[in-house]
Amino acid sequence: MANATLLAQETSSAQKLDQLKKAINQQKTTIKQVNKQREELEKQLQKSDLAISQVVKAIAKTKQQLAETQQKLTTLEKQQTELLKKKNQQELLLAKQLRAAYSSGNHDYIKLLLNQESPAKVQRSITYYQYLNTARIEEIEQFKTTIDKLHQVKIEQMDQIQKLEQLQQAQSKQQKEFSQEKNQREQTIAKLSKQLLNDQQTLEKLEQEEANLKAALARIAKLSQQEESLKGLSRLKRKLSWPVNGKIRRSFGSSKQGYLKWKGVLLSAPTGRQVTTIHNGTVLFSDWLKGYGLVTVVDHGEGYMSLYGHNQALLKSVGDRVETGEPIALVGQSGGQEQSGLYFEIRHNGQAVNPKLWCR
């Protein structure tokens, strides 16, 4: 009887162990599927962020071209007004000259000679007529030049009006593309939000993103060529301006998740606001980075770098030299952020330092 009971207990334990193994395997499979889905969604997020960046830059360029075209049209309208005024003045002058010539009598030089007046008087009359004729010819040539210029202005006006229409059509198309990409991004964010992560998974995700950032900065630091003209930031403590005006939403050193701390600051700012570099330097990185979205990294020399993340669009490319206060990006919420803002770091020899020690 005891043996039967022991056997039953062993069988039950084996069944429970088997069920537990199956549950663990099922959980591993589920986690694997969720991670795969999340990776696909993050790839889609990257694609949407980059597409939005391109459209935003195209819209900005079109807007600038529209302003330039409008200015050109305004200039042409002023030229047209001046030329029409000049044309009217020349018409009046020519008409006056013709009336004066008509009222002075017959201009037939042969008849003048046959009148048998004194040679001196004849010579004076001929000289006078030649003078009037020369003046009329000059006025006619000026009139023709004015007419030609007016014609050219009208042609250029038509070209600019056509260009304006094309730019307006392009802008409309770009706005439509922007709306589509924005909707796609919002859908992706919504899907990512549905995949709720527990504290451990969130910590692991943030650890991986931080490791990716550190590795990326280490790679670009090796590639950077120190320029003698870049003197670093060591002498500029509390002298630099923040890259964007906004309230600090997350402070350097505050808790991020678990033992992880913020290595920079998160500044609240509206989408589209210009992000400016804190000091002159060279752009070392300008691309999308998981967890940080569209990122620009500027080398300031002497081991100092500044990082600007979660941008909507990047305005500079790798290798570009930038000056203090120069626009380098537009504020956004790339990288999966639900609110717009700028993530900003300062690093020295790879180690994050408190931006508040440099910016005022």
TrEMBL record:
<feature type="domain" description="M23ase beta-sheet core">
    <location>
        <begin position="262"/>
        <end position="355"/>
    </location>
</feature>
<dbReference type="InterPro" id="IPR016047">
    <property type="entry name" value="M23ase_b-sheet_dom"/>
</dbReference>
<feature type="coiled-coil region">
    <location>
        <begin position="17"/>
        <end position="86"/>
    </location>
</feature>
<dbReference type="InterPro" id="IPR050570">
    <property type="entry name" value="Cell_wall_metabolism_enzyme"/>
</dbReference>
<dbReference type="InterPro" id="IPR011055">
    <property type="entry name" value="Dup_hybrid_motif"/>
</dbReference>
<feature type="coiled-coil region">
    <location>
        <begin position="147"/>
        <end position="226"/>
    </location>
</feature>
<protein>
    <submittedName>
        <fullName>Non-catalytic member of peptidase subfamily M23B</fullName>
    </submittedName>
</protein>
<dbReference type="Pfam" id="PF01551">
    <property type="entry name" value="Peptidase_M23"/>
</dbReference>
<keyword id="KW-0175">Coiled coil</keyword>
